[in-house]
Amino acid sequence: MRAQVGIIGGGPSGLLLSQLLHLQGISTAVLERRSRAHVLGRIRAGVLEQGFQNLMRQAEIAQRMDREGQVHTGVNIAYQEDRLRIDLEGLTGGKTVMVYGQTEVTHDLYEARDALDGVVIDEAEDVTPHDLQSDTPYLTFRKDGAEERLDCDFVIGCDGFHGVSRQCIPDDVLQSFERVYPFGWLGVLSETPPVNEELIYARHDVGFALCSLRGPQLSRYYVQVKADENPDDWSDDAFWERLKATIPAEVAQRLVTGPSIEKSVAPLRSFVAEPLRWGRLFLAGDAAHIVPPTGAKGLNLAASDIQYLSSALIDWYKKGDSSGIDNYSARALKRVWKAERFSWWMTSLLHRFPENEGFGDRIQRAEFDYLASSKAAQTVLAENYVGLPY
Ligand code: APR
Ligand code: PHB
Fold first, then answer.
1. Which of 103, 153, 188, 377 has the fewest CB atoms within 10 Å distance of its CB?
2. Side-chain half-sphere of 213: how many Cα atoms within 13 Å?
3. Residue 26 near residue 4 (C-beta atoms within 8 A)
């Protein structure tokens, strides 16, 4: 089989790229290792920057997002009993974020690919890239026990952190930058009304907590735990107790609890690979970089990669102009590192670090007090949270 662009990974990055290129008459084939049901079953974050929303509209898949997504004009930061509202809209000249789950985004993307008869092959085993330094790279894989080959002009690694594509870049070419945090997030999804109409990020001597939501009767909460914590060791009651102890009392007393319908632990890490191109291979999304979820940047960074890469490939096919693909790595990494900085800063401000006893805690308190007293500091947070320009 043949497609102009071979895409490894059927997560949001791979599907969005496939859709954007299809709309410009460029053929693609997406090879996804897992089943579609598995991909759609993943519970992930859901705060969409303006840039991501615009890309969904450009990809002609924004109808449900615009109908069911919630526009948030503010976000809350709490420190012990103090709570500060950051006026995103007011401090950024009208920019906001959209709360709409990544699971819904992925669902809409699959629906759109099906509607256009897009080639998305799931349960594609042992996907292996070949001849990436030639003008005729290809991918081999196994589907239903049969050996298959996909010939293409470009291979795009949208296969996440544990994918195969980044490993294709030789050690003497690839540089990795990493920070692993000494804690994780225990997340719970519950069919209860959200405790607050806007997100609350809380730092407390007990640890970190986040009050988020998916809809009027679907809430998403997180508390700080050890990175290797076992979610099965946490009863729902223990989770609600910890959450109540971590958020301001005025919020805790409004909390509606209930049975969890999903419970999982995610470790926190910052990771960036450089470069994002090797010959005819390009990396995008989690295959290239990971951010701790504290800044809500994971999905949004994948989107800016895909915006840069799709416009570069369209210029290449339509105008024979290679400047976009030649500059992709440098251009994408510039925005990636700014989002890495913001995510690292939010994580450093809002979590209890074992080594922070005393001086570190006082610095965190001073950071919060400065934030609460400075419009300039609040504006910095706001413009990063709504998303820096592409
Ligand atoms: N062959 C084929 N597919 C693979 C392989 C492989 N060897 N390895 C991984 N995959 C698939 C995974 O099963 C997954 O569906 O690649 C997909 C990668 O999707 P994501 O991990 O969701 O990464 P991405 O599409 O870049 O989306 C980034 O996901 O994790 C969140 O916070 C992150 O929101 C960000 C978003
Ligand atoms: C979520 O809703 O799951 C969520 C929101 C914001 C974050 C992280 C996760 O920063």
1. 377
2. 23
3. yes
Q: Are 354 and 182 in contact (CB under 8 A)?
A: yes
CA–CA gap between residue 5 and residue 21 (Å, rounded): 9
pLDDT of 42 reads 84
Question: How many whole angstroms from 160 Cα to the centroid of ligand 1?
Answer: 4
Residue nearest to atom 15 of ligand 1 (CA): 11
pLDDT, tens digit, 9 for 90 and up, residues 6-30: 999 999 999 999 999 999 999 999 9
Q: Which two tokens stand for residue 250?
A: 């005025």
Residue 111 to residues 21, 157, 292, 333, Cα–Cα distance (Å): 16, 22, 29, 30
The token pair at 287 is 């295959």
Instruction: Give the span between the Cα atoms of 165 and 292, in whole angstroms.
Output: 22
Ligand number nearest CA of 301 is 1
What residues does 273 pair with on adjacent strands? 176
Q: Which tens digits make up the pLDDT trace of 30-68?
A: 999 999 999 998 877 899 999 999 999 999 999 999 999
Q: Which burial class, exposed, middle or buried, applies to 354 when counting CB atoms under 10 A from its CB (0-12, 13-18, 19+)?
A: exposed
Residue 125 alpha carbon, nearest atom of ligand 1:
1
What's the pLDDT score for residue 184?
98
Q: Is 293 in the pocket of ligand 2 (CB under 6 A)?
A: yes
Q: How far apart are the C-alpha atoms of 109 and 10, rounded to whole Å?
A: 10
**Distance separating alpha carbons of residues 355 and 298, to the nearest angstrom:** 27
Give the model confidence (pLDDT) of 338-380 as tens digits.
Answer: 999 999 999 999 999 987 778 999 999 999 999 999 999 999 9
Looking at residue 313, its amino acid is L
Residue 143: in which H helix or E strand, if any? strand 138-143
CB 55 within 8 A of CB 303: yes
79-111 pLDDT, tens digit each: 999 999 999 999 999 999 999 999 999 999 999
Contact in structure between 124 and 143 (CB atoms under 8 Å): yes
CA gap 22, 116 in Å, rounded: 8
Of the candidates 30, 3, 284, the one whose C-alpha atom is nearest the C-alpha of residue 137 is: 3
Cα–Cα distance between 219 and 194 in angstroms, integer?
Answer: 5
In this prediction, residue 150 has a pLDDT band, given cuts at 50, 70 and 90, of very high
